[in-house]
Specification:
Blueprint lengths: L2 H9 L4 E7 L4 E7 L5 E9 L2 H17 L4 E6 L6 H10 L3 E4 L2 H7 L1 H4 L6 H13 L12 H33 L8
Parallel strand pairs: 1-4, 4-5
Antiparallel strand pairs: 1-2, 2-3
């Protein structure tokens, strides 16, 4: 184990509520557990918008209060760009969060019930278990000009790739239509 994983494991104590969230396009599913993996409360489904996030936070705060937890950590699977809204909201609320590797979620599914079947409620529990085991990362979410620069770099990378594809098509077409002339291209 890496020292960083040990540090993440040491952050999880008996006073830490662990929440796993399965991210989807419109509705997310969350489950809560303690450091031993004992599930607390009922799973919740909430929408990917401000009202849904407020419902989610009040849900786990209620569980945290009922069971005297001092800390909360929310783990999620970074699915597409749909997780970013929740991550930004949690950061604004100063709630600790992390992301788990989607491949780890896929590989860990069978541990509980020997079945690789996928459903959102099961995935939320698997994500919480991975967080409990320190198998998560804390993403860097740039703000302001840095966020704009990151987005500009992504757009530039996509445009460069598209340009190479178009150039290759033009070269192929030129070679097939003008085989003798296209040697210099």
């Amino acid at each position: 184990m890496h020292s960083t994983q040990n540090e993440r494991i040491n952050q999880i104590t008996s006073s830490t509520l662990i929440v796993g969230v399965d991210i989807a396009k419109f509705k997310h599913v969350a489950r809560a557990q303690d450091y031993r993996g004992v599930e607390l409360g009922r799973p919740i489904t909430f929408e990917n918008n401000l009202e849904g996030f407020e419902l989610f936070v009040s849900w786990f705060q209620k569980i945290s209060t009922e069971h005297d937890f001092q800390d909360v950590i929310v783990g999620m699977e970074p699915t597409g760009h749909y997780w970013l809204n929740l991550a930004h909201y949690l950061r604004e609320q100063q709630i600790t969060y992390g992301v788990v590797n989607p491949l780890h979620v896929k590989k860990s599914k069978e541990l509980d019930d020997n079945s690789p079947t996928k459903n959102d409620i099961k995935d939320a529990k698997v994500i919480a278990q991975l967080v409990k085991d320190g198998r998560y990362a804390v993403p860097s979410l740039p703000q302001g000009i840095y966020a704009e620069l990151r987005e500009a770099m992504k757009i530039r990378e996509h445009l460069t790739t598209d340009l190479c594809v178009v150039q290759a098509r033009v070269h192929k077409l030129a070679r097939s239509v003008f085989p003798r002339v296209s040697d210099g291209i």
